[in-house]
Write a structure and sequence with these properties.
Helices cover about 70% and strands about 0% of the residues. The chain is mostly helical. It holds the Pfam family Sigma70_r2.
Length: about 200
């Protein structure tokens, strides 16, 4: 059986007019895109419409779409643009009110956090409470960096800010969390976020 095609191979095929290649990318990233889209506190149906519109536009504009080093990054950036356009059109809440902490409760497991002394629910509640105190931009940067594993340049493009701004947001957020958490919780959270302590 042939090995699974890489994102880059599928992207090249799609740009050359292969509709099935784009369909495979849509299947591969639907869950990631929907999960990210729901962070904007919009109805699931709106997120799904935006995802459908995104892939429709990708197909219609395939001859003008550039190559990309990261299909995931490209799709997240594009979906963000579609959702924010939708929010502006409906004159809904500004981006500052978006909740970036919701991914914790449904996506972390005891194995991931390596919890020994505290229950998963207790630790999750603590992390969520501390993340809720951060500005929305810092929470979004943390989400994209440590949950979606995007690089700083990719996050800068997704959020439409410069790289230094992303670095500053991440550093500020981590510094704030470091000063607020007790040592055991802090260490567990660092394991969760995938950070190597210096």
């Amino acid at each position: 059986m042939a090995a699974q095609l890489t994102d880059h191979t599928l992207w090249i095929s799609y740009r050359q007019g292969d509709k099935q290649a784009l369909g495979k990318l849509a299947e591969r990233y639907y869950r990631v895109l929907r999960h990210y889209g729901l962070k904007f506190m919009v109805d699931g149906a709106i997120v799904e419409d935006c995802i459908q519109e995104l892939f429709l536009q990708l197909w219609q504009n395939r001859s003008r779409i550039n190559d990309t080093d990261s299909v995931k990054h490209y799709l997240l950036k594009s979906l963000r643009h579609h959702i924010l356009q939708n929010l502006r059109a409906q004159k809904k809440q500004p981006v500052q009110d978006i909740d970036w902490t919701g991914f914790l409760a449904e996506d972390i497991s005891a194995e991931t956090l390596l919890i020994q002394q505290e229950s998963l629910n207790s630790l999750t509640a603590t992390i969520k409470a501390q993340l809720a105190t951060l500005p929305a931009r810092e929470r979004e940067a943390l989400y994209l960096r440590y949950y979606e594993n995007l690089s700083i340049p990719e996050i800068a493009e997704v959020m439409n800010v410069n790289r230094q701004s992303v670095s500053n947001s991440l550093q500020k957020a981590l510094n704030k969390l470091r000063t607020k958490w007790l040592s055991p919780v802090f260490v567990s959270a660092y394991v969760f976020f995938g950070i190597i302590l210096a």
